[in-house]
Automatic annotation (TrEMBL):
One Pfam short name: dATP-dGTP_PPHyd
Organism: Salmonella enterica
Protein name per Swiss-Prot or TrEMBL: DUF550 domain-containing protein
Domain dATP/dGTP diphosphohydrolase MazZ: 70-130
Superkingdom, natural source: Bacteria
Amino acid sequence: MTTITREQAKKIIEAADEVISALAGTNEDVHPGSDNMLRLWDDLNDRYAPPEVVRELARIALASLEREQIRREHAEWSDATFGNVGPVGPLKHLSKEALEAAADPSDPLEWADMQFLLWDAQRRMGISDN
């Protein structure tokens, strides 16, 4: 598995934007079917987004989708279980879980509990990852 840096991701987007604008006819310098168009395609496919990179981007996207599904399902469960309690309830519970994690930092369940409670408090406060 490769790691894609922020700079690499930005270059992929820029290269793709150049190809897309050329194909759409909105790039004054590059026209579809030209040698410059071929160069843009080659840069995108060979330099910035070869198959290994595209595969890694797809893996990242899938992981993000799975995370969002888990968070959505947790939010549904939390709302059904606790109702509209606002962020204070989950934050109080989070403080208890933090003490339990401090007592046994090797217990992954305590860490998971804290993560879910933090997500829940943020969501109930209207704070998103965006």
